[in-house]
Design brief:
Elements (H helix, E strand, L loop, with lengths): L5 H8 L4 H8 L3 H5 L10 E2 L14 E5 L13 E4 L17 E4 L18 E3 L18 E3 L18 E3 L17 E3 L17 E3 L17 E3 L17 E3 L19 E3 L19 E3 L17 E3 L17 E3 L17 E3 L17 E3 L19 E3 L19 E3 L18 E3 L18 E5 L14 E5 L4
Parallel strand pairs: 1-2, 2-3, 3-4, 4-5, 5-6, 6-7, 7-8, 8-9, 9-10, 10-11, 11-12, 12-13, 13-14, 14-15, 15-16, 16-17, 17-18, 18-19, 19-20, 20-21, 21-22
InterPro entries: FNIP, LRR_dom_sf, STK_FNIP-Repeat
Protein name: F-box domain-containing protein
Organism: viral metagenome
Length: about 475
C-alpha cells in the first residue's frame, strides 16, 4: 500500500473524514509526507490550519471575538460573530465567507443590510432584533431563526431560500413563503394554518403544538413529520410521500395510507393498535416503527420491510417476519419464545422483560443486545461467527466460555450482575470490554492483546498491571 500512486490515495481519501485521513497518513513516515495530497472537507478551526497547504482546506471556521482581526491569508468560509464589538466586522469580512452565525456573546445592533451578497447560510441563533424586508441578502439559501423569534416573516425572506428552520417560539402566519423552499421545519409552539405551502417543498416537519387541518399539500412533498398534538384527517395527504411520522395523539382513520404507494418509512402514532393490513399493500415499505400501545399480529407486513421496531406494549407471538429484515428491535414488554427469525437479520435488540431461550438466532447477526431480565444459557451464540457486538443486561450471570471462538467480535458489554470466570472466554479480536458493578474476578492472562479500552465496575479490586501499558482503563460508577 505504501507504493500506491497519488491518484489512488486521493480516491481513497475522498471517502474519509478529516480525522480518518490523518490516521491513514500516520501509518508510515512516507504516508505522512503525503498527507497534503488530500482535500479536507470537514469544518476545521482557523487556528489549526497549516498555512503552507491552505488550499487543501475547503471549510475553515473563524470565531470573531473582541479585538481580533481576520487573517487575510486564510480563506475563511464559516464566520461566527461572538463579540459586542463588531462595527468593522462586516467591512473586513473575507470574500471567501459563505456561512455566517451569531455566537452566544453577540450583543447589540447590527445592520443586516451590510451583510455581503455572497453569504449563503445564516444562523440567527443569537440575533435578537426584528428582521425587516430587504435585510437578508438574496444570495442566502439556508436560514436558522433565533429560538425566541416571533415576528412575521412575510416579504422578509430571500427569493432563492431553500432551507428554513423556525424558532421554538415562532407562531405567525406563513402564507407567503418563497416558492423555492424545499426544507421547512417549525418549532414547538407553531399552530397556524398552512394551506399555501411552497410548490417546491419536499421536507416538512411540524412541532409539538401543531393541530391544524392541511387542506392542500404540494405534489413535491416526500417527507412529512407531525408533532405530539396533531390529530386531524389526512385524507388530502400528497401521494408522493415516502417518509411519514405521526405524532403521539393521532387517532384518525388510517385509510389514507393505502394511496401512499411510494411510502418507504413510517412511524406510527403511540395510540395505533389496529390490524396492519393497511400496510400490506405498500410495495416499497422498508422501515416500520410502531408506537407504545401497538399489540397486534404482524404476519401481514410487506416482504420489502428491512427495519422493524416495536413499542413498549408489544408482546405477541412471532410467527412470520419479512424475509428481507435486517434490523429488529423489541419493546420492554416483549417476552415470548421465538421459533425462527429471518436468515438475513443483522441487528437484534431485545427489551427489558425478555428472558427466553435463544436457540433461534440466525448466523447472519452482527449485533446482538439483551436487556435487564435476560439470564439464559448462551451456548447457541457460538454459532454466530459474524457477530461484532454483544451486549448483556443487568441480570445476566451465566458462563461465557462459548464466546471464545467468535473471532469477529470486537465489542463485549456485561451488565450489573455478571461475575463469572473469564479465563479462556474472551475472543481474541475483542477491542473493547465493559464489566458491570459486581464483576471482581482475576483477569491476568484473560484479556486479549487487541483490547484497547476496558471499563470495570466500582466493585472491581483485582490487579490490572499487565493491562496498563496497552489499554485505556476506566472505572465506572454507573450501575449498568
Amino acid at each position: 500500500m505504501i507504493q500506491l500512486p497519488h491518484d489512488i490515495l486521493i480516491y481513497i481519501g475522498d471517502n474519509l473524514s478529516n480525522i480518518d485521513k490523518i490516521m491513514l497518513t500516520s501509518i508510515t513516515s512516507l504516508f505522512y509526507k503525503r498527507k497534503h495530497i488530500f482535500t479536507y472537507h470537514d469544518i476545521i478551526d482557523a487556528k489549526n490550519v497549516c498555512r503552507f497547504h491552505i488550499r487543501q482546506y475547503k471549510n475553515i471556521h473563524f470565531e470573531l471575538r473582541n479585538n481580533e482581526r481576520f487573517d487575510k491569508f486564510i480563506p475563511i468560509t464559516h464566520l461566527t460573530l461572538n463579540t459586542p464589538v463588531f462595527h468593522t466586522a462586516l467591512e473586513n469580512m473575507p470574500n471567501s465567507v459563505r456561512h455566517l452565525a451569531f455566537g452566544k456573546y453577540f450583543m447589540g445592533y447590527l445592520d443586516l443590510c451590510e451583510i455581503p451578497n455572497k453569504i449563503t447560510h445564516i444562523n440567527f441563533e443569537n440575533y435578537h432584533d426584528k428582521i425587516n424586508p430587504g435585510d437578508i441578502p438574496q444570495s442566502v439559501t439556508h436560514i436558522i431563526m433565533n429560538q425566541l423569534y416571533n415576528f412575521p416573516v412575510d416579504k422578509c425572506l430571500p427569493s432563492l431560500l431553500t432551507h428554513l428552520i423556525f424558532s421554538e417560539h415562532y407562531n405567525q402566519p406563513i402564507d407567503n413563503l418563497p416558492a423555492s423552499i424545499t426544507h421547512l421545519k417549525f418549532g414547538g409552539r407553531f399552530d397556524q394554518t398552512i394551506n399555501n405551502l411552497p410548490a417546491s417543498l419536499t421536507h416538512l416537519k411540524l412541532g409539538v403544538c401543531f393541530n391544524q387541518q392541511i387542506r392542500r399539500m404540494p405534489s413535491s412533498l416526500t417527507h412529512l413529520s407531525f408533532g405530539t398534538l396533531f390529530n386531524r384527517s389526512l385524507k388530502n395527504i400528497s401521494p408522493s410521500i415516502i417518509s411519514l411520522k405521526l405524532g403521539l395523539n393521532f387517532s384518525r382513520s388510517y385509510k389514507f395510507i393505502t394511496k401512499l404507494r411510494d411510502l418507504s418509512r413510517i412511524i406510527l402514532a403511540d395510540s395505533f393498535n389496529k390490524s396492519i393490513k393497511i400496510l400490506s399493500g405498500l410495495p416499497k415499505l422498508t422501515h416500520v416503527i410502531f408506537g407504545t400501545y401497538f399489540n397486534k399480529n404482524v404476519d401481514l407486513l410487506p416482504s420489502s420491510v428491512t427495519h422493524l421496531k416495536f413499542g413498549r406494549q408489544f408482546n405477541r407471538r412471532i410467527t412470520t417476519l419479512p424475509c428481507k429484515l435486517r434490523y429488529l428491535e423489541f419493546g420492554s414488554e416483549f417476552n415470548r419464545p421465538i421459533i425462527s427469525l429471518p436468515s438475513e437479520l443483522q441487528h437484534l435488540k431485545f427489551g427489558y422483560n425478555f428472558n427466553q431461550s435463544i436457540n433461534f438466532l440466525p448466523n447472519s447477526l452482527i449485533e446482538l443486545t439483551f436487556d435487564n431480565d435476560f439470564n439464559q444459557t448462551i451456548e447457541h451464540i457460538s454459532r454466530l461467527t459474524n457477530l461484532t457486538s454483544l451486549t448483556f443486561g443487568f441480570s445476566f450471570n451465566n458462563s461465557i466460555r462459548c464466546l471464545y471462538n467468535l473471532t469477529s467480535l470486537t465489542k463485549l458489554v456485561f451488565g450489573h450482575n455478571f461475575n463469572r470466570p473469564i479465563l479462556g472466554c474472551i475472543p481474541k479480536n475483542v477491542e473493547e470490554i465493559v464489566f458491570g458493578h459486581d464483576f471482581n474476578r482475576q483477569i491476568k492472562g484473560c484479556i486479549p492483546n487487541k483490547v484497547t479500552k476496558i471499563i470495570f465496575g466500582e466493585n472491581f479490586k483485582q490487579d490490572v498491571t499487565e493491562l496498563s501499558s496497552r489499554c485505556k482503563i476506566l472505572v465506572s460508577v454507573f450501575d449498568h
